[in-house]
Design goal:
101 residues; mainly alpha
């Protein structure tokens, strides 16, 4: 693999991460507005948000980028160890949660 291939992957991932962040921000803003407009509103299906690919990607970026990413969790795996296979990891997570990919 040439150096250009790796650069393209990083650029593509950066672009995907930016779009995921924009989607998350848009949805969070909408939810905030709805909650502000109706203080008694109940969001009955947050599972769809938590398993949304954009939310998973944005959350994963935060987890693998924070200081605790150097420490292993109860499974013995450090988030930084997963970096090379994160797309497959997120897809498998959605599968385990029973959400269509």
């Amino acid at each position: 693999m040439s150096g250009d291939d790796g650069e393209h992957r990083r650029t593509d991932l950066g672009r995907e991460l930016w779009w995921a962040g924009q989607r998350v921000l848009k949805i969070q803003t909408k939810l905030h507005q709805w909650a502000s407009d109706d203080h008694g509103r109940v969001f009955a299906d947050p599972f769809n948000l938590v398993t949304d690919p954009a939310f998973l990607m944005a959350a994963w970026d935060r987890v693998q980028g924070n200081q605790a990413a150097r420490s292993a969790g109860v499974d013995g795996i450090r988030p930084r160890m997963i970096r090379l296979v994160e797309r497959a990891f997120l897809a498998r997570l959605r599968e385990l949660l029973g959400v269509p990919v």
